């Protein structure tokens, strides 16, 4: 599997407080990564870097073999291969269909092709026929699903999900889990955060655990594919490891 | 009290009979104010958005200046523009003093700080997720700001309406730069000031009623926008 991201010596600080300190992290195509950690562990900061929205204070991110230059015009092209669904997503005013169509239009999709992809994406999240509804009239769970449909419609190489299952009922959660777990087979790299141990058990993903901004050795977790040799240094280290390759 | 009720009765007759002086003053007021608001919006909305979304050295000073300019006395603007467009002024060659366009220039300067400031407030009060959401869906920097403006359009429209409210009710600029020429640059406010001074209370009251109606409509529009 090809490498999507390589993060080297990433450090991010806010007001001289280091919130993220990662020596090395590699993410591959067609994998599902589950990002865990306590509140304030740096999960959202890491997702923001992976979404190419914010630059780390220092260090290098290589995306699809190309170093990310944060003030470069190439950044927008690179960003179009990634999308992020926030825990509490923002839906633009207007119809559900207009929301789902937004990113597609920016990519030059118009006409019947646009309509078809919007309908397919909505059907995928169980919202077929919702296109004409106003975004402000939706429930929290429906809004979450529209945001996911909006992201899925783009068919990006990377899908980042910040607690996508936190505010939805069990049926919606099951539906979203099925959608998410099917994506890696299409070559999509999925990185999702969760606090719920049940999701960790059910989703066939590889775990990235953050402790105080540092990568930590996975705790007991049946789905991890990280090899024993890779986590050994973390166990021996008196402080959390800063280097960790999930490959 | 009889004086007031008689004047009110005459005022209503002037309005219903479409008295030429009333119609002219209302027309000049509305047309000049619309042009001023249009120009003030073209300058003030982008300026307000730019100040709100960018960080630069001296931003605090710019915000303070905009706040101060919101309370700019109309006669000061009138004096400033007069010095520019009078025959001896650097722009005197255009010959626009005592024309509706002179009033447009002055009222535009008066409305720009209001439109810019209220636009800036609307943008700063926007949901902080709007721009990141647009960026993660593939928008570039310009498109993400355009999306922000679209999302905050009601707040920006409220800023524009507030600017219109400011200029249609002002008297200093209209008097100093327009010259209060009957049927040409006489507005509702300058007519009210002049007619009341002459003791023609009824015409002043008729125009005052229309002006109050316009103000009421502006406030209703603002309330409607703020509730969206």
From TrEMBL, chain A:
CDD domains: ABC_cobalt_CbiO_domain1 (cd03225). One of its GO terms (molecular function) is ATP binding. Residues 222-247 are annotated as: Disordered. Keywords: ATP-binding, Nucleotide-binding, Transport. It holds the Pfam family ABC_tran. GO terms for cellular component: membrane. It comes from the Bacteria. One of its GO terms (biological process) is transmembrane transport. PROSITE patterns: ABC_TRANSPORTER_1, ABC_TRANSPORTER_2. Residues 5-237 form the ABC transporter domain. InterPro entries: AAA+_ATPase, ABC_SmlMolc_Importer, ABC_transporter-like_ATP-bd, ABC_transporter-like_CS, ABC_transpr_CbiO/EcfA_su, P-loop_NTPase. PANTHER family: SPERMIDINE/PUTRESCINE IMPORT ATP-BINDING PROTEIN POTA, SPERMIDINE_PUTRESCINE IMPORT ATP-BINDING PROTEIN POTA. This is Tungstate ABC transporter ATP-binding protein. It comes from Geobacter hydrogenophilus.
TrEMBL record, chain B:
GO terms for cellular component: plasma membrane. Its main location: membrane. Residues 26-222 form the ABC transmembrane type-1 domain. It is found in: Cell membrane. It comes from the Bacteria. The chain crosses the membrane at residues 22-53, 65-85, 91-116, 154-181, 201-222. InterPro entries: ABC_perm_TupB-like (IPR049783), MetI-like (IPR000515), MetI-like_sf (IPR035906). It is a multi-pass membrane protein. Keywords: Membrane, Transmembrane, Transmembrane helix, Transport. One of its GO terms (biological process) is transmembrane transport. PANTHER family: PERMEASE COMPONENT OF TUNGSTATE ABC TRANSPORTER. Belongs to the binding-protein-dependent transport system permease family. NCBIfam families: ABC_perm1. This is ABC transporter permease.
């Amino acid at each position: 599997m090809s490498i999507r991201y390589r993060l080297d010596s990433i450090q991010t600080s806010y007001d001289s407080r280091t919130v993220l300190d990662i020596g090395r992290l590699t993410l591959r195509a067609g994998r599902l990564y589950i990002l865990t950690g306590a509140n304030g562990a740096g999960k959202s900061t890491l997702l923001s870097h992976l979404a190419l929205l914010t630059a780390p204070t220092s260090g290098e991110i290589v995306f699809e073999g190309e170093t990310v230059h944060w003030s470069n015009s190439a950044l927008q092209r690179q960003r179009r291969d990634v999308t992020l669904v926030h825990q509490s997503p923002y839906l633009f005013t207007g119809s559900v269909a207009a929301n789902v169509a937004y990113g597609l239009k920016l990519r030059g999709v118009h006409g019947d092709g646009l309509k078809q992809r919007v309908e397919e994406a909505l059907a995928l999240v169980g919202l077929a026929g919702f296109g004409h509804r106003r975004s402000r009239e939706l429930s929290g769970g429906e809004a979450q699903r529209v945001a996911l449909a909006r992201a899925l419609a783009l068919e990006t190489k990377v899908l980042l999900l910040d607690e996508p299952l936190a505010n939805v009922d069990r049926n919606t959660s099951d539906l979203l889990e099925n959608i998410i777990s099917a994506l890696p087979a299409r070559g999509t790299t999925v990185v999702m955060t969760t606090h719920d141990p049940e999701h960790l058990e059910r989703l066939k993903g590889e775990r990235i655990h953050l402790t105080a901004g540092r990568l930590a050795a996975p705790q007991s977790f049946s789905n991890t594919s990280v090899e024993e040799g890779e986590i050994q240094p973390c166990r021996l280290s008196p402080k959390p490891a800063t280097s960790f390759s999930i490959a | 009290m009889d004086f007031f009720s008689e004047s009110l009765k005459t005022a209503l007759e002037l309005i219903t009979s479409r008295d030429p002086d009333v119609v002219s003053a209302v027309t000049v007021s509305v047309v000049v104010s619309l042009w001023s608001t249009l120009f003030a919006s073209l300058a003030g909305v982008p300026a307000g958005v730019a100040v709100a979304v960018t960080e630069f050295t001296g931003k605090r000073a710019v915000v303070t200046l905009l706040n101060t300019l919101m309370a700019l006395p109309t006669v000061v603007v009138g004096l400033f523009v007069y010095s520019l467009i009078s025959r001896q002024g650097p722009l005197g060659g255009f010959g626009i003093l005592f024309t509706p366009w002179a009033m447009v220039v002055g009222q535009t300067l008066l409305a720009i700080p209001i439109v810019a400031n209220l636009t800036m407030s609307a943008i700063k009060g926007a949901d902080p997720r709007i721009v990141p959401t647009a960026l993660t869906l593939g928008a570039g920097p310009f498109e993400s700001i355009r999306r922000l403006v679209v999302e905050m359009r009601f707040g920006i429209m409220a800023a524009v309406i507030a600017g219109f409210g400011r200029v249609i009710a002002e008297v200093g600029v209209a008097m100093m730069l327009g010259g209060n020429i009957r049927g040409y640059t006489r507005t509702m406010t300058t007519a009210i000031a002049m007619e009341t001074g002459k003791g023609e209370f009824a015409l002043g009251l008729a125009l005052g009623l229309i002006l109050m109606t316009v103000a009421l409509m502006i406030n209703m529009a603002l309330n409607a926008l703020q509730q969206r």
